[in-house]
């Protein structure tokens, strides 16, 4: 494969910058309990990275109830989950940043790399503000403008456009299978951050603690040299 020059950095939010998926899972667990659907380890492992609509369908399908609700009723349920999640968002602080992320972002800023937030969450701007990360992410994809959620490439194509870079010149950071699929479909070099290997990721880190500009460059060598 021909070497590529890195010209931009694109970040997922949940599980990459902050450990906020736990709050989505808590909200969905409440919804499942209200619907009298058992909450399982399989659901907890499957939902991260999914859109709100797909998350609900997955929960319903786990007990064969995906046809029990009309589209309007499903919208009411997903709106309810979002309201529950926003209560958690209101409690976020810079302390919720994942270990090592602040130092890594500072290095990227110092090196002059443009960055964008590639999150399909409508709550992303509020979360970034609560986390105190506004100065790093003036560029945040507008979730309402996306036609398709991950694993479709839309969010990464939009994020690269925000920083006026070709997606093939960008590196994406993701923590889920669907996120990696999205970034790869857009043409990005992709770093997976997870204790489990993520198929299709160009390189893996087990924790954000391991992130540094030099470590990323070494991990992607010779792809990014």
In spatial order, strands of the major sheet run 2-1-3-4-5
Helix content: 40-55%
- Counted beta strands: 5
Q: Uncertain runs with pLDDT below 50, 5 residues or more?
A: none
Distance between the termini: 11 Å
User: What number is the mean pLDDT?
Assistant: 91
- Give the second-level CATH assignment, the architecture of the largest domain: 3-Layer(aba) Sandwich
Domain tally: 2
Helix count, per DSSP? 9
Class of the largest domain in CATH? Alpha Beta
CATH superfamily of the largest domain, by name, is: HAD superfamily/HAD-like
Helix and strand element order: EHHHHHEHHEHEEH
Query: How many strands, which pairing sense, and closed or not: the largest β-sheet?
Result: 5 strands, parallel
Tell me the Rg in angstroms. Answer: 17 Å
Tell me, briefly, the overall form.
globular
How is this structure best described in words?
By secondary structure, the chain is an alpha/beta fold. The chain has 2 domains: 8-19 and 94-220, 3-Layer(aba) Sandwich (Rossmann fold); 21-89, Orthogonal Bundle (DNA polymerase, domain 1), CATH 1.10.150. 42% of the residues lie in helices and 9% in strands. It has 9 helices and 5 strands. A 5-stranded parallel sheet has the order 2-1-3-4-5, with helices on both faces. Helix 1 packs across helix 4. The longest helix is centred in the middle third of the chain and has 19 residues, at 71-89. The protein is globular, with a radius of gyration of 17 Å. The termini are close together. The mean pLDDT is 91.
């Amino acid at each position: 494969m021909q070497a590529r020059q890195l010209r931009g950095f694109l970040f997922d939010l949940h599980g990459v910058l902050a450990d906020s998926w736990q709050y989505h899972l808590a909200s969905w667990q409440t919804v499942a309990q209200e619907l009298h659907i058992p909450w399982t380890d399989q659901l907890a492992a499957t939902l991260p990275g999914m859109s709100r609509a797909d998350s609900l369908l997955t929960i319903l399908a786990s007990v064969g109830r995906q046809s029990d609700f009309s589209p309007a009723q499903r919208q009411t349920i997903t709106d309810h989950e979002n309201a529950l999640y926003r209560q958690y968002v209101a409690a976020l602080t810079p302390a919720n940043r994942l270990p090592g992320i602040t130092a890594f972002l500072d290095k990227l800023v110092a090196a002059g790399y443009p960055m964008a937030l590639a999150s399909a969450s409508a709550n992303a701007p509020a979360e970034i503000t609560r986390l105190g990360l506004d100065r790093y992410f003036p560029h945040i994809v507008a979730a309402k403008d996306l036609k398709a959620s991950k694993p479709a490439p839309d969010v990464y194509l939009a994020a690269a456009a925000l920083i006026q870079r070709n997606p093939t010149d960008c590196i994406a950071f993701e923590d889920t299978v669907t996120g990696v699929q999205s970034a790869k479909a857009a043409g990005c070099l992709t770093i997976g951050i997870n204790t489990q290997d993520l198929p299709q990721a160009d390189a893996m880190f087990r924790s954000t603690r391991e992130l540094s500009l030099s470590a990323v460059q070494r991990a992607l060598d010779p792809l990014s040299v």
